Amino acid sequence: MRSSCVLLAALLALAAYYVYIPLPSTVSDPWKLMLLDSTFRGAQQVSRLIHSLGLSHHLIALNFMITSFGKKSAQSSPKVKVTDTDFDGIEVRVFEGSPKADEPLRRSVIFIHGGGWALASAKISYYDDLCTTMAEELNAVIVSVEYRLVPQVYYPEPIHDIIRATKYFLQPEILDKYKVDPRRVGISGDSAGGNLAAVLGQQFTYVASLKNKLKLQALIYPFLQGLDFNTPSYQQNVNTPILPRHVMVKYWLDYLNGSYDFVEAMIVNNHTSLDVEGAAALRARLDWTSLLPSSIKKNYKPVMQTVGDARIVREIPQLLDVTASPLLAEQEVLQALPKTYILTCELDVLRDDGILYAKRLESAGVNVTLDHFEDGFHGCIIFTSWPTNFSVGIRTRNSYIKWLDQNL
Ligand SMILES: *[C@@H]1O[C@H](CO)[C@@H](O)[C@H](O)[C@H]1NC(C)=O
Ligand SMILES: *[C@@H]1O[C@H](CO)[C@@H](O)[C@H](O)[C@H]1NC(C)=O
Ligand SMILES: *[C@@H]1O[C@H](CO)[C@@H](O)[C@H](O)[C@H]1NC(C)=O
Ligand SMILES: *[C@@H]1O[C@H](CO)[C@@H](O)[C@H](O)[C@H]1NC(C)=O
Asked: Looking at the structure, do residues 108 and 195 belong to the same domain, yes or no?
């Protein structure tokens, strides 16, 4: 009896040790975030074990766990019709809100879900719920793209999938079929999906027939650059759930089909040191020491190595490509972008990617709304339902949908 009590106490202490992480007092629902984070960490550890046993790629195992808990069939409600179909070979889930009485044509958002280019799905309840709410509240047609994920494909294939589905949808006869107003179509995505949405927006500016087809872009804590992993927000949130810096660097390397051997070097910006040809010049486009206000910079110091590791860019040259790091775009490209919404969270390594893009877009003359949440953490917008309902999840979702309602 006594020994089982000791064992129980030890197990509880171990569990508490595993679950507990120091969090800033400002974060929304801290205990819930610790539980969410430890569940996610546990799933990541199990998937790495499966990987090391040679049973399956760790990302496939992890995504299997995520999708088998949360997959939802295409269920229509009286207010939203939900259909799974494909657009030019790319799977999509379409959510159709009912048209407003006085407007026969509906607004539309092409939505790209997040998940590090490797995880999640348009069909899991988190994203299904978000898109259903958008369709209902905006009386809109939401196209959630089921692009192919790492490691089935790597960069740039997910971009091709998104572009293909979007081009198909924008054809007059398809918009007509869905009763969508061609002048009121926007693009949006969160996290890695925000990266893909930003890239799509830029790519469309190069093509005369697609330029100006999108009324707006709405980017939710997007990943926009992989050249500097020491922006103030990366430094401030090195270990902040649910996206610590080393996890972000690994998703990025996976997306580019690069080796994890480079993680430690990239964390100190050895991949974009002054001796790496081409890299230093590009880093000038995301020089946060001049672009960010001092309230954000605080006392953080830039990390710019004189001598680094030129091997990384040699092996992964796409690292410096604007279609991987859209924050690198030239001014002329930014000028051609539509009205933009960027949502950022204080407790997120990607906060400054979003703020920097907002600053660059503003200087290019684009109308930008930067919507910042002091108690927000990476991923919060999808966490709105019990047991993973966060106050900041509901507030970010409402604020995002409100902006879309006023601007689309
Ligand atoms: C990904 O990288 C591995 C190892 O370097 C290589 O063998 C493979 O061909 C690459 N796959 C693609 C699709 O580039
Ligand atoms: C960064 O590069 C320098 C110079 O090559 C090297 O001495 C250092 O060990 C590297 N740091 C990491 C973490 O790889
Ligand atoms: C930006 O858009 C808002 C509406 O969302 C509008 O009120 C504002 O005047 C616009 N600003 C500029 C500079 O065009
Ligand atoms: C989460 O949902 C539960 C049950 O509906 C509710 O009691 C709680 O207040 C909610 N929490 C937040 C932060 O919304």
From this structure: yes
